[in-house]
Target: Metal-dependent carboxypeptidase
Amino acid sequence: MTAYDDLMVFQRETEALGQVMGRLGWDQETVMPPGAAEQRADEMAALEGVLHARRTDPRLGEWLAAAEAPDEVAGANLRHIRRSYERNARVPGRLAAALARETSRAQGIWAEARKAEDVAAFLPTLREVVSLKREEGQAVAQGGDPYDALLHDYEPGTSSAELSAMFGALRPRLVALRDAIREAPKGPKLDGLFDEEKQLALSRECALAFGYDLARGRIDRAVHPFSSGSGSDVRITTRTNPEDPFNCLYSTIHEVGHATYEQGIDPIHALTPLGQGASMGVHESQSRIYENQLGRSQAFCHWLFGRMRDLFGDFGIADEETFYRAANRVHEGFIRTEADEVQYNLHVLLRFDLEQALMRGDLMAEDLEAAWNDRFLADFGYAVDRPSNGMLQDVHWSAGLFGYFPTYTLGNVYAGCLHRALREAVPGLDARLARGDAGAAVDWLRERLQRHGGLREPRETVVHAIGGEPSEEPLLGYLEAKFGALYGL
Model:
């Protein structure tokens, strides 16, 4: 056994325990009884203590110093393990356990506060989570930017300054497109009630159409849709609204993008650092291209319209063209996950700026609601009407996921680049999408990107897939062309 072999035996056990931790989180969001919240927080803290001890074990340093990489895969594994070891060694064990305990508690408190429209009930917990995350960011940054230190957990190799420059280039053209659409006649929308069990049945069909393997996954309901797991156990959740079947269908397709990425990784990487997505930005590129460029394409809407007519009968939409316009309707709204393609990134940029201010101490938790509402009014032109449509709408901050939000927009940028390359590489794609078959697109994405997992750094993963450097231009060009045609601009 070489030092590298010893290291990987140890690492596979750590990865397996990490999957168990993820399963506890899935259970908490789906089927855990509400009275178990306090005990679950203690369970999560105990397991995080075990994981933190393994991730900072002195033997890791010895193995890393002695290990040699015989090939590209071994070199990538060493890179990931070294990065994790150096990062975790800077975080005290008691802080790691406190974060696990508090964020587990906070998610239940957030859900209740959201249901009750009660910001005050959430604020004490939010203050504690923010304080712990600031402490963690400062410990990891070692004198650098604490927000960037947290951002690197989700998007290694980037910085808030780089993202701010990219987002600054996106904002003016997104706002100009949105404002032009506001001057155009409003698009059609669905009206009426749609049976929620039928929504779930159709969402299952959509999941299968986009390559989700239910022998290695499952679909459940949750307040906030998410994907969890990797390898041979990758689960997703969705939600239903009797007045809005698109919420269920496109949330499902979105999460299937995440899930098929994990399911598509080469099995030789299972329970190693390479056995998961390269970053959250790359992950989001998969969910967004599935949901939008493919799932909301005119071709796929042709199939979806037919299936909705089969299931729901006459639901007030006369033809496929009108249905396509309804599926891509630009509309006023408060909820990020329900936002149209044109405005979605504006929701993300709001959160990006606010969470930077929270982590850098420029904004206090008790001032967050006012700051959110002021920024939303400035960006969207109408006022937040209730907390569940404002600062309480997302689970992320209760879960301590500071640095996560900007990866949504970065993922959209990557999706724009991948979509352009996909269209060039796969002729006749629309004919298959019109039959409800996204297999050709999924196969291309799996071969070019998904199967490699974390083999390459995030940006290099996209470069390898598209054969060039990513930029925001393909996304902006796609949005301007699509919505210009839809709204006669």
User: Anything to note?
Assistant: The chain has two domains: 3-144, 160-486. The chain has a mean pLDDT of 96.
